[in-house]
Design a protein that fits this description.
By secondary structure, the protein is α/β, with parallel strands linked by helices. It contains 12 helices and 10 strands. The strands form 3 sheets. Strands 2-1-3-6 form a 4-stranded mixed beta sheet, sandwiched between helices. Strands 7-10-9-8 form a 4-stranded mixed beta sheet, sandwiched between helices. A two-stranded antiparallel ribbon has the order 4-5. The N and C termini lie far apart (45 Å).
Length: 380
């Protein structure tokens, strides 16, 4: 639906709404703007943080930068701005991301160094995310296609239920659309398939391998989208009269073999937990990016969490809504913040995702609404 909409206009739309919805913050109080994009060219190039800040109406005094950590772009933007705030250098910052995968397909015009393959640094198919997902099925036979399909079906159902209950409404920004039929208005994600069934998923093609297990039904669709968020210091929150929705506790990034990229969130989560002095059972809510169902399942199996645990992606995820690469990290944050309000018994939550070329990213957040009770998984 965004085929005639510029990528930078998408992120500017999100930023303008963010600024307008937080009028307590004077526009000259923003210390920096970090906007991520995986393919930084064309309307996703030219130092997006700076250009989008100017286009969004922020003063000339507000600087900006662009970030690329592929799928974890917005997550990295948030961790970078959060780190600068924690170090006492910033008070208020904007972090977000954009990916127009229609205009800029993943890997467009990339020129990987031939040494990667010729010197055996990575396998030739390590840059194909779908093939790395198939490798997870190979490595862990218990991660069956039936489990992946069931997880995907539940994601579609949970997103549909969340839309029906207006869980996303506070975070969405309507966008005017131009098409051959005239002008329209985008008010919801376009990839939702709430009528998904196991029977329908069973017979889908496996494009990455004959008789494989990864399909269009148990993977995230190619999507265009943008996100933006505000991070602020405790002092700024108090002085400006802001209502904090989450507190950043720790974050971690880690590398794994590129051929099994989907395992990345496991060591990054272990690293973030160690730095926070927490255990996995201290985490009461998880927002795990559903790049592929099998990738989320590998994370759950490692930490001993059931596929249908209600603490995992309560509103569904990227299999239904899509994964516009560099934008998704902040979308995970938004969903977790909303769930914190609904679950005051939960003190800590996680946002985590796999990252292309064999990486993982994790952020741990604290719920300001915590009522000092215990969540369902505590002490297991």
């Amino acid at each position: 639906m965004y085929w005639q909409t510029r990528a930078d206009d998408l992120v500017v739309k999100a930023m303008r709404a963010l600024i307008e919805r937080n009028p307590e913050i004077p526009t000259d109080r923003y210390d920096d703007v970090a906007i991520a994009a995986t393919t930084q060219q064309g309307d996703q190039g030219l130092t997006l943080g700076r250009t989008s800040a100017l286009l969004a109406g922020l003063p000339n005094s507000v600087p900006g930068l662009a970030i690329d950590r592929m799928c974890a772009g917005a997550m990295t933007a948030a961790s970078l701005m959060g780190g600068a705030i924690g170090f006492g250098q910033y008070d208020v910052a904007i972090a977000g991301g954009v990916e127009h995968m229609g205009r800029h397909p993943m890997g467009l015009d990339a020129d990987p160094n031939p040494r990667f393959v010729s010197e055996g640094i990575v396998e030739a198919d390590a840059l194909n995310m779908g093939k790395t997902a198939e490798r997870l099925h190979d490595r862990f036979p218990e991660l069956t296609k039936e489990r992946a399909d069931h997880f995907a079906m539940r994601s579609q159902q949970k997103v549909a239920a969340a839309y029906g209950a207006r869980k996303f409404e506070r975070d969405l920004v309507p966008v005017a659309l131009e098409s051959t039929n005239g002008w329209g208005l985008a008010t919801r994600d376009e990839h939702l398939r709430p009528d998904t069934t196991m029977e329908g998923l069973r017979d889908l093609k496996t494009p990455f391998r004959p008789h494989g297990k990864v399909t269009a039904g148990n993977a995230s669709p190619l999507t265009d989208g943008a996100t933006a968020s505000i991070l602020a210091s405790k002092q700024a929150v108090k002085k400006l009269g802001l209502k904090p929705r989450m507190r950043l506790v720790s974050f971690g990034f880690a590398g794994v073999q590129p051929e099994v990229m989907g395992l990345g969130p496991i060591p990054s989560t272990e690293r973030a937990l160690e730095r926070a002095g927490l255990k996995i059972d201290d985490i009461g809510l998880f927002e795990l990016n559903e790049a592929f169902a099998v990738q989320v399942l590998s994370f759950l199996d490692h930490f001993g969490i059931a596929d249908d645990d209600p603490s995992v992606n309560p509103y569904g995820g990227a299999i239904a809504m899509g994964h516009p690469l560099a934008a998704s990290g902040v979308r995970l944050m938004m969903q977790l913040a909303n769930q914190f309000e609904e679950h005051p018994e939960v003190r800590y939550g996680v946002t985590a995702m796999c990252v292309g070329l064999g990486q993982g990213g994790t952020m741990i957040w604290e719920n300001p609404n915590w009522n000092r009770k215990k969540h369902a998984r505590a002490g297991k």
